[in-house]
Structures are given as structure tokens and as C-alpha cells.
Amino acid sequence: MAAIRREIKDLEQQFDEADTEYAEVSKKLKDITQERANVEEELISSNVRLKQLMGELHAQKQLTDQQEKIVVADSRMTMDELSRKVETALLQVLEERFRDEAFTSAITEQSAVSVSDKVRVEFDDDEVFWTLQDNYTFEMLLHDAARYWDVAAQDVMLVDERGAIWPNDGYCRLEMHRNSASKIAMKIKPVAVQVQDEGGEMYGAETEVEESEEEMDQSFLAIAASVEDELLLAQAKGGTLTMKQKLSLRRKMRNELYLFLFFSFIFIWTLYSRRTVRDAFLLQEAIQTAFVEEVFGEYGEITFLDIANTNEMFDWMEGPLQNGLFPDALYNGADVPDARKGYVMTYNRVVGKIRLRQLRIAPDTTCTLSKLISQTDVTSSGMHRHRQFVDHCYGPYDEAFKSTAPFGPLAGEVEAVEGAGDGTGFTFSTDIANKLEGVYISGSATGASFDGSGFVRDLDPRNRSAYIEALHFLKSNLWIDVQTRAVIVSLNTYNGNYNYYCISQFMIEFTQGGSVVPNALNRILRVDLYEPKSFEETNRIIFLYIPEAMVVIGTIAQCVHILWRMYRMKKVTKNFRNLFKDSWVIVDVILCGTLVLSIFLRLMFFLNENRTSFDPFPLVPEDEYREMAELARSYGGVFIIDAFTIMVLVIKSLKYFSLQRDLMLLQRTLSQAISDLGVFLLMLVFLFMGFVIMGLNIFGMQAAGFKSLIDTLGTLFLILLGEFDFEEMREVSPLWSLIFFIFFVVFMFFIVLNIFLAILNDAYTVVHTQVVWDELERRKPLSLRERFEVRRAQWRERRNINRMRKMKRDKIKAAKKLKVEYDKKQKERSLLDRIGKKKKKADAEKAKQAAEAAAANPEKRRTVKRKDKLFE
Predict the structure, then answer these.
(1) Contacting residues for 74 by C-beta, under 8 A, at least 6 apart
(2) Nearest to 90 by CA among 127, 47, 57
(3) CA dihedral defined by 241, 244, 245, 248, rounded to 10 degrees?
(4) What average pLDDT score do residues 268-282 get?
(5) Which of 22, 35, 396, 414 fits a 20 to 30 Å CA distance from 4?
(6) Taking a C-beta distance cutoff of 8 angstroms, is the pair 268, 260 a contact?
(7) Whole-number Å distance between alpha carbons of 537 and 863
(8) Is 283 in contact with 498 (CB distance < 8 Å)?
(9) Rounded distance between C-alpha atoms, residue 19 and residue 88, angstroms
(10) Nearest CA to 584 among 643, 642, 671, 644?
(11) Which UniProt keywords are listed (predicted)?
């Protein structure tokens, strides 16, 4: 019995499945029959429309024939003229018929209805047919449909009539053959719908009027924002954007250009508001004239930069330096008043004292004597004798082997101690005692790095006699000897007219060969750049502090924008490094880094302890030297970074050349030639370094222009620019100078530089040719079929715009309706709240009255209590 029941149950189940399958087949047959009826009806409608079109074309042809008969008998019409007239007539007819939407839809669908190798895709209220090809997948169909309806492919998906998503790797022909009754519809993904809804809310305040130009720009900016992810994918994996998306990104770039120009203007404004270059140049030129360009010597033929020995160094100290600090008299012969003492070039007052600092090297430390110059033998008298050609070796300056021992009149009398010296110039002082900790000065002759220690002598700029006595003391006691490697004269001046300090350093470097190399350096400094007292000045607030704040805000915004783009790239492509495939992103990162570094250096300068503790007034009981070199170096470093930032801004401005045709031509030329220029520069470096090493070894020992790698590099660059001293080379070696010059000019000038120009010329030719062909392609007259496609696209675009406007209006109405319902609910809720409050208030009053009554009648209260107990 159990087996029979199972068989009966299986038979019933099979019967149910058969019924279900029969119902499905019947439903499919019904759908096919209905679809066939619809197709036949559409074909009939299309045939009617085509007959009407043919009738109108026939009438137009008859009209044309009548017009031809009117023409003079001897006049002849060419085939081109006839074709143009026919196309014009057909275009007029098509323009009239295109105003009928039903006709356009019939023309679009008639060639693809009920054909087995075509598939229909629906989107909103529109539908289009695509031809099915071999290996045509749903992913290809999705991209084609997205491109047709001008939407992003990643924001849409293909679904069937049940809402199931078609597989991207599935073949359309195979799937549609298996499911012939299935439909394909393109729908926007939920995330994209949310983005569009948010975009629609922006238009909530619009009325039913035509969109203005500003609203159109906002629409394009919204499209550019929505296509940002697709652009990131295109950068990472390669891809193309639609024309509308490209136009949107172009308008977005135009708005970015306005912000970029505004930020660049504000940054340059802040740069010049903190320092006036012309005033700084005039101040240092005055100091340069007083101490460097002033002549001295027996015949007045030497300047500071011509100093060649120790005698001339002391002559300069007793001449231009002394006369600049202590003029003998005024120009009318009167004595200089006490109030004007300590001034240089009329307006520049010396701050603190003048410092003479010498750095020395210990013997036999940084170099050793050759064994060939020492000899040990036995004399004729039988005595052992040891002798050497020179006594000691004095090498280049090295901080680890510097001499700290007292010398001169104090040699052997005072022990060398770490700390401050006695101020005579013959005892050693550490860099900490000199307030030069961590400060180094690079020598121009030997390349040595001189630290802040040394043998120091400070001089009073207001006491001429003490200055003369100090120089006489140093000179008479041989302050300069064989161990001397550098003498640095430092003085600081202040100009109240410009509110600038000039920090001057005159260094005389003594080489191992015995020559003397002078070098002068003037730095400009402004101490009160940002002061709390200046916040009371309206002009400084408007022209300095507000632009500075705007630069800081703009810097933060740019850095945050870069981080946001990295986050979006990481989210879209799973790797933020793909963002840096765009060279302009690298430029943005460099710009952000330089801006942050510039702001950081300004902040460090403002908080510098030397700046905050600086006081120009003399100290009590006596004045001392003010060390301001490191502060001036920090001040100059800020403007160097600012100047580099401006250079980066100029490079970034090339990005916006694509907004203008002629400038875009130059940008594309550089992009086209960049790879070839990279290979060319690599070859140039190898060739140039070969000539540099060759010139250094041939002429470096005798010609000043070839004494080092840097000097040789500069000399060869000048030769390329046409400025050179061939006589200097010829004096070293007439033969090799001629061979070197000819080879260098032939290879580097006539060949290499012309290759450089040829690369740029070829790139410009390629880009210009491409632009010309694109322009000719755009100007090419359209055929009748192309015009038909353009008109159909325009009609479809107008229909899409109308649909979007309708959606906006519907959303506005829905939002207003929801608002009205919300307000109504709020009113009802407030009414119920008031009623509830009144009821609670009444209950509270009754409870209060009951409590007062119970308090007034205690017997009743006890009775109530007893009743409660009885109930318990």
C-alpha cells in the first residue's frame, strides 16, 4: 500500500508539473501572438508613413521639374547642383516630418522589428534595436546602450522583465535564443539613482521656466562630478568618455582655472607684501659700495675682491672698512657729531659691534708629509742626522682638527679651554659662546665648511681710536700666520627708511697654496614681519594678514582635495597609485608640498628664538656683537621656497592651455616630444660630462674657468651660448685648445642642439597636422544620411531634456506634497500635545486638591487606610 501511495503521489506531482509547463507554454504563445499583432500593426503604420513620405517626395520632384522648365533653354545644370537641390528638398521634407514623434519612432524601429538577429533594449520610455553579432556579449551591449543614451556604463545595468540582471559574460544571441520571450531593459543602479535624486533636489527651488546659462553650467558640473569615477577608471585602466562628459570636464576645468588664477594672484601678492625686492637691492648696494667697491692701495687700484695677500687685507681694514665706519669729517669739513657716529652711508646704523673671527687648522692633522722629503743619515763626523725639507703640513680646514691653542703674545701663557675667549683675538671661543651653534659657512675656494667657533675680536663701531689700536695690536702680533684658513668680518646695519637689516659677512679665505680668496655676502632681513602690534593697523590687516589667511585656507583645500582624490581612486580601482599616472596629479602634489613647506618655514621664522629675543638697543654696561646671520638665512630661505612655489604654479598653468586652441597646440607639442626629449637629455648628459672631465684635466691646473667640475660645467654652458674666453684655453695648450674647441662646438652645438630643435619641430608638425585634419573633418559637408542621423539625435536629445524637466517638476510636486502632509501631521501632533498637556494639568490640579482635602481631614485619611487594609 505504501508503494502504491508513493506512485500515486509521483504521478500527481508529474501531472502538476505538466500543468505548469502547459501554462507557461500557453503564456509564451499568447505573448508571441500579441507581439506579432503589435509588429504587424507597427508595420502597417510604418508603411502608411512611408507612402506619405513617398507621395511628398513625388510632389517635391514634380515641383522641381516645373522649376527646371522655367530655366532658360541654353542654361545647363551640373550634377553637383542637381544633387544639392535634391538633398535640400529631402532635408526640408525630413525636417517637417521629424516634428512628428510617431513618424520618427516608426523610422527608428521599422528595420529591426521581429528580426532574429536584432535585440531590443528599453530605457525609460525609449527603446532602440541593436544587431546581434557573433561573440556579442551583454557587457558590449551595455556599453553600446550607455553610450547611445549618454550615461555612464558603471551606473546602469541590463535586466529582464522579472528584474534579474543579465550576465555580462553571456552571449546575447545564445541567451535570447534560449529565452526568446525575454526582454532587455537598461536601468540605473540604486546608487546612481540616489546620486540623481540628490542632484534633483538641487533644482527644488526651480520654476517651470527655461534653464539659464548659469543653471546649464551647474548641470555640466554635476555631470563632471558624476563622471569623476569613470575618469579615474579611464586613467587607471584606459578608456574613453562621451562627448558630453568631456564637455562637462572642460567646463569644470574652466571653473578651476578661475580659482587657480585667484589663488596665484593672492600668493604673489603676499610674497611682495612681505618684502620689496627693489628696496632690499638698494640697501645691499649701498653696503657693497662702501666696503667692497671702494678702492684702496698705493695707487687706488685695488678693491676688496682684488685682495691677494695679508698686507692687502689689513690695508682694506685700515682703508675702506675704517673709512666707511668712521668717516673723518662731513662733506663740508666739519667734524662728525656724536649723534651721527656709527652710521654707514648716511642712513644705515651699525647694530652692535663688529666681529673679526679667525679659524685655524692644527699642523700635521689633515695631511701628512711625504717620506721622500725626510732623510736620516750619518755625518762625516759619525753623528746621526735626521732632516726634512719642510717642517709641517698644513692641510684644509676640518672642524675635527681645528686649532684651539692660544697663539701670538698668549702662546704658552694661557691654556686652551672650551668656552669664551678673552676677546683679544688670540684665544679660542666655541660656537656656543659665539652664538653660532650649528651655523656653517662654505668656502668658495677650497669648498671647506667653516663652523661658528674661532678666535674672536669685537670692535666698537663708534670709537675710531679703539678700532685703530685693535688693528695695530693684531697686525703687530702676527694675527695671520701659516695656520690661518679663514678670516670673517661680520657687521650688521639697520636702515629705518626701509625697515630692513643688512647682515654683511666679508670672508678672506687662505688656501693651502698661499693664495687669498676674498668673498662678500650681504643678506637682507626684516625682523618685525608679523607682530601683534601691527594688528591694530588697518592697512596691514587688509593687505597682508587677510591674503596670508586666504593662502593658508587655499593650501589646506588643495591638500584635502588631493587626499580625497586618492581616497576615491582607492575606492574605485582598489589602488590609489593609479592616480599618479596622470602627470598633473604629480604637479599638484609638488605644489601642495611646497605650499606647506613655505607656511611651515614662515611659522618657524616667526617663532625663532633669535627673532623674538632680538633687541637693537645697546646692552648695559657695554654693547656686544649681535649675531643675526642664521636668522637672515632663515628669512631668505622662506622667499626661496616661495619663488620655487611660483615656478610650480607656472608649470601647473600649462594644464589649462587645453582650454584654448593655440595654447593647446603648444601643450600637445610638449606632450608629444617629452619621450624623445628624455632620451635626448640622457645622451646630452653623457656627452656633456665627457667634455667636462676632458676640459677639467686639460685646462684645470692653469685656467680659472676650468679649476673645478662646477666651474668647467659653467664655462662649457657659456660656450654653447656664444660667450667664452678662447685665449685662456690657448695659453694653456694651443694645440689641445683648438682640438677641444672644435670637437665641442661640432658635437654639442651643430649636432646635439640641432637634434633638440628637430625633436620639437617634428612634434609640432605632427600635432599641427593632426589638428588641421580634425578641423577639416569637422568642416566636411555631411551626407543626407549623416544629416538624418544628426537630426534624429537632436530630436532624441530634446525628448530627453523634456523628460528630465518633467521628472524635476514631478519631484518638486512630490516634495511640496510631502511638505504639506508633514506640516499637517505636525499641526495635528501639536494639537494633541496641547490637549494632553491640558489634561495632565487638570489631573495635577485634582490630585493637589485631593491632597489638600486629605490633609485637612485626617480622620477620613485613616479611614481610607483601613479600607485599603481590608481589601488586602
Answers:
(1) none
(2) 57
(3) 150
(4) 90
(5) 22
(6) no
(7) 85
(8) yes
(9) 62
(10) 671
(11) Coiled coil, Membrane, Transmembrane, Transmembrane helix
| Assigned C-alpha cell, 570 | 582607492
Please count the residues of the chain.
Answer: 872
Between the alpha carbon of residue 606 and those of residues 592, 603, 611, 642, the distances in Å are 21, 5, 7, 16
- Can you give the pTM of this predicted structure? 0.64
Gap between the Cα atoms of 287 and 524, Å rounded: 11
Q: Three-class SS of residue 123? A: strand
Q: Looking up cell 652711508, which residue turns up?
A: 345
Q: What percent of the chain has pLDDT over 90?
A: 21
Closest CA to 360 of 428, 410, 439: 428
Tell me: the pLDDT tens digits for 31-46?
Answer: 777 777 667 767 776 6
The tens digit of pLDDT for each residue in 849-872 reads 777 777 776 555 444 444 444 333
**356, 457 in Cβ contact below 8 A?**
yes
Which position has the grid cell 656709527? Answer: 342
d(CA 534, CA 530): 7
Orientation angle between helical segments 858-871 and 784-856, nearest 10 degrees: 110
Helices 79-98 and 2-70: crossing angle, nearest 10°? Answer: 130
Assign 4 to helix, strand or coil.
helix
Cβ neighbors of 482 (< 8 A, separation 6 or more) are 392, 394
Contacts of 217-223 with C-beta under 8 Å, sequence gap 24+, read: 217/251, 217/255, 220/247, 220/248, 220/251, 220/252, 221/248, 221/251, 221/252, 221/255, 223/248
Q: Please write the tens of the pLDDT for every residue from 201-226.
A: 333 333 333 344 444 455 555 555 55
Widest pairwise Cα distance in the chain: 151
Q: In whole angstroms, what is the distance from residue 479 CA to residue 425 CA?
A: 8
**Three-state secondary structure along 634-680?**
HHHHHHHHHHHHHHHHHHHHHHHHHHCHHHHHHHHHHHHHHHHHHHH
- Helices 546-573 and 583-606 pack at an angle, to 10 degrees, of 140
End-to-end alpha-carbon separation of the chain, Å?
67
Taking alpha carbons only, the member of 41, 51, 108, 249 closest to residue 799 is: 108
Three-class SS of residue 539?
Answer: helix
Q: Quote the distance between the C-alpha of residue 507 and its chain's center.
A: 40
> Which three three-digit cell numbers place residue 276?
620689496
Distance CA 799, CA 581 (A): 39
pLDDT for residue 455 is more than 90: yes
Which backbone phi and psi does 360 adopt, to 5 degrees?
-125, 160
**Do the beta carbons of residue 348 and residue 493 sit within 8 Å?**
yes
Reduced to 3 states, what is the DSSP secondary structure of residue 495?
strand
Answer for the pair 381, 418: CB distance below 8 angstroms, yes or no.
no
Other beta carbons within 10 angstroms of residue 441's beta carbon come to 20
